[in-house]
Amino acid sequence: MANVTLTIDGQKVTVPAGTTVLDAARSAGIFIPTLCHDPAIPGFGACRLCIVEIPGMRNLPASCVTTVAEGMVVHTASEAVIEARRTIIDLLLANHPQDCLTCEKNGDCRLQDYAFMYGVRQTSFHGERKNHPLDDSNPYIIRDQNKCILCGKCVRTCQAVPGRSVIDFGYRGFNTRVVTAMDVPLGESDCVYCARCVAVCPVGALTYKPMAGKGRTWEMQKKSVTCTFCESGCTFELNIRDGKVIGITAKEPGPGRPLCLKGRLGLELLYVEKPMTPMLKKDGQFVPVSWAEALGLEGLVDRMKEVEGQP
């Protein structure tokens, strides 16, 4: 494939043809903010925060869906770009709870980071605001639709797994939100609680229920571990506070394999000092189960007991 040379913020950058402006900038170490972009599922262009200025184009294109061209000149931080990004953040904050002090994502929220970066202290838009009930209908994931910025990362990562597609966009206009089939609570849906959606959420719309109230981001150390419950090698993170592992969070699935609840529960049993009692859905209701059942090891455990009981 032929290479293309363009200029980004005065710096010559050479990348393969077909590369997006966003990827070209990042390859050169040039920062462009994003909220909806997921390298594993690119080309969405919803949040528009990654806009840049390209002389000759009549608007400010989203860099994540704009392909480079030979001789292209790109400005990632011109006055027009900065002003447009401030307006986008302002609009997002217009319908976003201002409860950063108590939000579980405080210190690890991309919207919070960018509001600080671009000096947006509060919204200048006023009007009707979302008022959705908190969805904590399952033991593993809390959904706060009032904090959702409709970036679509959770929808896309769920739909990327064959046979899942548990969530999608529903309704229209101001009422648009991410919903399950028939808009039932997550606990009543076909969700398998792999938590990949939580891992990619850039704000506090999706959080881990077992981690709620256990500490702030800056109080924790994170250490990557590889799950060994199958050959795929998905990665998770140990959340460590005061020298103790207080929870396990999903990071990345292994090649060709989605994340799973079994792997996360198994790592909680291995590493967390006081893991929560595992719960599985039976006849539409979550019920406590043994660790052997949660991890699919009942037959193995029973056989071990038989062997150990033999003379």
UniProtKB/TrEMBL annotation:
The keyword DNA damage does not apply. Gene3D superfamilies: 3.10.20.740, 3.30.200.210, 3.30.70.20. GO terms for cellular component: membrane. It comes from Desulfofundulus thermosubterraneus DSM 16057. Residues 80-119 form the 4Fe-4S His(Cys)3-ligated-type domain. Residues 2-80 form the 2Fe-2S ferredoxin-type domain. It comes from the Bacteria. This is Molybdopterin oxidoreductase Fe4S4 domain-containing protein. Keywords: 2Fe-2S, 4Fe-4S, Iron, Iron-sulfur, Metal-binding, Oxidoreductase, Repeat. CDD domains: fer2. Residues 139-169, 182-211 form the 4Fe-4S ferredoxin-type domain. PROSITE patterns: 2FE2S_FER_2, 4FE4S_FER_1, 4FE4S_FER_2, 4FE4S_HC3. The keyword Transcription regulation does not apply.
